Amino acid sequence: MKPLTNIIRKEVKELLTPATIIPVVVMAVLFASLGGMIGGAQEEASKAPIIGLIDLDGGNYSQVISSYISANSEIAYNGTDVDVGLEAVRTAGGPAVIVVEPDFTSDISAGIPGTVRVYWIMAGAGVMDSVSSSVVDVILSGAGQMLSARMIEEGASTNSSLILAPMVKSETTYFKQMTMDDISPSTVSGVLSSQSFLIPLVVMLVILMSGGSIIGSMGMEKENKTLETLLTMPVKRRDIVMGKLAGAAVVGLLMAIVYMAGMGYYMGSLQGQSAIDMARFGLVLDPLDYLLVGLSLFLAVLGALALCMLMGAFARDFKSAQTLTMPITFLAMVPFFIMMMKDFSTLPLVGQAVIFLIPFSHPMMVMNNLMFNDYGLVIAGIAYEAVFAAVTVGLSVWLFKKDMLITGWKKGSKKTVRGFMRKGR
Q1: What local confidence, expressed as pLDDT, does residue 420 receive?
Q2: What is the percent of the chain where pLDDT is above 70?
Q3: Residues 227, 405 contacting (CB under 8 angstroms)
Q4: N- to C-terminal Cα distance for the chain?
Q5: What pLDDT does 303 receive?
């Protein structure tokens, strides 16, 4: 049994390496966090929303609406002043102020749908940020059904269209100091999420394709012993490093240019097909904004490529190099999933710090920030990306001057390489 035990121990030791364990652990944590967010969204949907209620009519039908809304909501304000109601609801963290307009009852009696105005306070564009507003929509729908039932009981109208839809909703959305009339939070969130979904995919594809090729080429050079040959040639290692990094930078720049060309067409399509006239609300990017988007993407790609080169230096062969792209891929996946669920501005301070420290998260949110003129966060992100890229490039230059570039983490290999380098010289 001892030989069998030794073989099993050997196989387990070779398979259970950090390269195989870390990706599984990270994926488990990622999916557990995502499940926790979904559970939190379900819990949020089961809570009564905090709203303001203003009944300017006071008639029979408006009381039906007000009673149903009050029974299914937590009322933070019940008065007549819209501005005071908005401030009270915003302070309480609620999503809306509902106003039953004057002549609501008389309009219905005259055969005209009554008007309910909803002032939405939109905190963020993530999935969890829109849960409370969706609950309010459900409550308003239920209030309309209650009103239809009351009209049928009273025989108030023979107009089937009026009975089925006795009230109309007029909406105004407040989001990031911007007032958008006749727009619902779901419409705004849909447009912004479509952009937030595209850019992370571009970032991950660039990292996977170009970063994977860099790490793979480093592993291949070690496996084929061409790296040793290159390092023994009468070329300064600094020049070798700068040549590789310049090539990576050119690749990143080309990808950024191609991306910006596609994004320009994409934004034009959005403006033509979206339910929002984005130009009417200033939700468009000018040439300077596109330049900032391209710069943020380029720095993220450059930092990713330099980090891939840095990690590829520790690959022993081509096979081991393939697993080294996983940590970088996870760095791109984590902010993608988090910002899909929550807006950056609605994350807790610790969450914002974590997302900010991940350099690949900045191009994922740069477009939404520029649309709402949050230039401070954009500039800070670009500055951080530049520092991160400079540090990774500097570490790559430093590492290329070390014998560890060939030996990797193997013990005793440093002496071997030194002897090899002396013979080569």
Answers
A1: 36
A2: 64
A3: yes
A4: 51
A5: 84
DSSP string, 73-134: SEEEEESS-HHHHHHHHHHHT--EEEEE-TTHHHHHHTTS-EEEEEEEEE--SSTGGGHHHH
In whole angstroms, give the CA distance from residue 165 to residue 114. 9
Domain range summary for the chain, segments of one domain joined by +: 47-183, 190-424
**Poorest-pLDDT segment among 11-20, 143-152, 264-273, 304-313:** 264-273
Please state the rounded mean pLDDT for residues 189-215.
68
Structure tokens given for 16? 């259970």
CA dihedral of 54, 57, 58, 64, whole degrees rounded to 10: -80
- In angstroms, the CA 219 to CA 208 distance is 16
Helix axes 287-312, 375-400, angle to 10 degrees: 30
Tens-place pLDDT, residues 259-285: 666 765 665 565 444 555 666 666 677
Task: Please tell me the total number of residues recorded for the chain in this structure.
Answer: 425
Q: Which of 38, 32, 69, 194 is nearest to 131 (CA)?
A: 38
Residue 28, CB half-sphere, CA atoms under 13 Å: how many? 6
From residue 61, how far is each of 47, 57, 313, 425 by CA, in Å? 26, 9, 74, 95
Any residues with CB less than 8 A from the CB of 276 and at least 6 apart, and which? 180, 183, 187, 188, 191, 283
Helices and strands (H and E) in the chain: how many: 19, 6
What is the rounded average pLDDT of the residues 123-147?
A: 85
| Fold adopted by 47-183 | abc type-2 transporter like fold (3.40.1710)
Single-letter amino acid code for the residue at 52: G
Q: Evaluate whether 303 touches 388 at the Cβ level (below 8 Å).
A: yes
**CA-CA distance, 130 to 263, in Å (whole number)?**
26
Tell me the per-residue pLDDT of 60-99, one tens digit each, with 9 for 90 and over. Answer: 889 999 999 999 999 999 988 999 999 999 999 899 999 9
CA 8 to chain centre: 44
CB 238 within 8 A of CB 192: no
pLDDT number for residue 146: 92
**Rounded distance between C-alpha atoms, residue 67 and residue 62, angstroms:** 8
pTM here is 0.71
> What is the identity of the amino acid at 175?
F
